[in-house]
Amino acid sequence: MRALGLDGFSNGWVAVCLDGDTQEIAFHRDIADALARPFDCAGIDIPIGMSHDGARACDRLARNRLRPHTSRVFTGARRWLWQEFCDPDKANQEALRRGQTRVSRQLWHIGRKIMEVDAFVRAHGTRNIREVHPELVFLRLNGSKPLARKKSQEGDACRRALLKRFGFREIDRWLTEVRIGTGAKRDDVLDACAVAIVARDAAGCVPDGAPPRDPYGLPMQIWF
User: Fold this and answer.
1) Residue 87: pLDDT band by 50, 70, 90 thresholds?
2) Is residue 94 a part of any domain in this protein?
3) I want to staple 49 with a disulfide (CB 3.0 to 4.6 A). Which of 32, 45, 93, 218 is the partner?
4) What's the whole-model pTM score?
């Protein structure tokens, strides 16, 4: 089985491929390039499927699982935010006018990538592409014990140890050599590895069972 794990960064996408005993990492400028090669299942750390008001049961359930670190799940992605506005303040004014929640700066700034993935997934409906949240994956690998912040020394070390335990033999070299010069940060690589694990060996999803679907028929479901 050929599984891909993707995580976005400033210059594009980190892609980790698991194919039998083979483990590869690559850096791509856009999602179409990252998914150009054949795969059986791809996981992406980005919202897939959006409601009109930004509310999704999968986000709420994911935040509940991550307590007390609920802020690690960005909520409120809505297509109209980026289709109709280029300024987050004006977008938030419109959200309030519609009786909806404001969008956070963190979510706003990944809007281009959200829309990039949205367009690709809608155009390739037969491909097996799933939304994955790395923090849920690391929580699972850590026996449901909350982890320190991923950018902290403790959080980085814990995530590396978990990935090594799962069989990522080259993770240190990827972080200290292969990553350098790409623009990707350490946590981008760690997250892509976690997402690849789920693309190959998913343990569950929220919500369970048949997911609710957005107006375009995309599932609103997060795997881990």
Assistant:
1) very high
2) no
3) 218
4) 0.95
